[in-house]
Design a protein that fits this description.
single chain, alpha+beta, 37% helix, 38% strand
Length: 125
């Protein structure tokens, strides 16, 4: 089986449906003896350029190991789901299990000033 990295972008109006979409795609992969090595929900982010007159979208990253038949089924599911604005599949040399730079950036980012003020206020009272 081969290893793939898949990123798909979901329309912001369908953000509530993302967990169900992830579960559906996860079941497609695992039903045919595939494995998911990494699954990251990057959340809603600003798009670099407009896609279908939309400024923001919901991003999801998956690193999977599957056969060609499963990959074709996933690709078909992406193409015929109107909520998915774009998707990209890249063949990888091996499994990737470490956190992506996007997730490392979020963990390293300090809390917002409003969150710090809230914490200080609750500590003082």
């Amino acid at each position: 089986m081969r290893h793939y990295e898949i990123v798909f972008i979901v329309h912001p109006d369908q953000s509530e449906q993302v967990p169900a979409m992830i579960e559906r795609y996860r079941s497609i992969v695992t039903a045919k003896n595939g494995r998911i090595h990494r699954l990251e929900d990057w959340g809603r982010r600003q798009l670099t350029y407009l896609i279908q007159k939309v400024h923001k979208a919901h991003y999801v990253l998956m690193n999977i190991e599957c056969d060609q038949e499963t990959l074709d089924e996933l690709d078909h599911a992406f193409k015929f789901n109107d909520a998915i604005l774009r998707h990209l599949t890249v063949k990888m040399d091996g499994p990737v299990t470490v956190a992506s730079p996007m997730m490392r950036e979020e963990k390293a980012r300090p809390a917002s000033p409003a969150a710090k003020d809230l914490r200080e206020t609750t500590l003082v009272t």
